[in-house]
Amino acid sequence: MKTFCRNVRNLGRPQAVRRLRHMLKVYSPQIVFLIETSTYAKAWRRNSTTTLRSFSKYHIYIEFKEGDEGNKWRFTSFYGASDLRHREDT
């Protein structure tokens, strides 16, 4: 299974959107996970299901299942505070 995980700063800018669309076309992932400071988004293909198991300000834990009888796997992402003064809190 291919995944695509990216910090997407300035996604509102047309150039950033074009770059993201190009990368998704090139890599054709089944799962897309986008992080922008304190916001995240996930997307997946129709033949997969996801279950959000836990999350906090600095982590996310998701389980994925491919199709009805498919493989089950876990995705955990940890991200630090964007403000350097709070890095040790993460």
Task: Compose a concise summary of this entry.
By secondary structure, the protein is α+β, with helices and mostly antiparallel strands. Helices cover 16% and strands 44% of the residues.
Q: Which class do the helix and strand fractions yield?
A: alpha+beta
Question: Major beta sheet, specifics?
Answer: 3 strands, mixed
Unreliable stretches = none
Q: Return the average pLDDT rounded to an integer.
A: 79
End-to-end Cα distance, whole Å, is: 29 Å
Task: Report what the structure shows.
The chain is of the alpha+beta class and 90 residues long. It has one domain (3-89). The protein is 16% helix and 44% strand. It has one helix spanning 14-27; strands at 3-7, 31-36, 39-44, 48-55, 59-66, 72-78. Strands 1-2-3 form a three-stranded mixed β-sheet, with no helix packed on it. The chain has a three-stranded antiparallel β-sheet with strand order 4-5-6, with no helix packed on it. α1 links the parallel β1 (3-7) and β2. The longest helix is centred in the first third of the chain and has 14 residues, at 14-27. The mean pLDDT is 79.
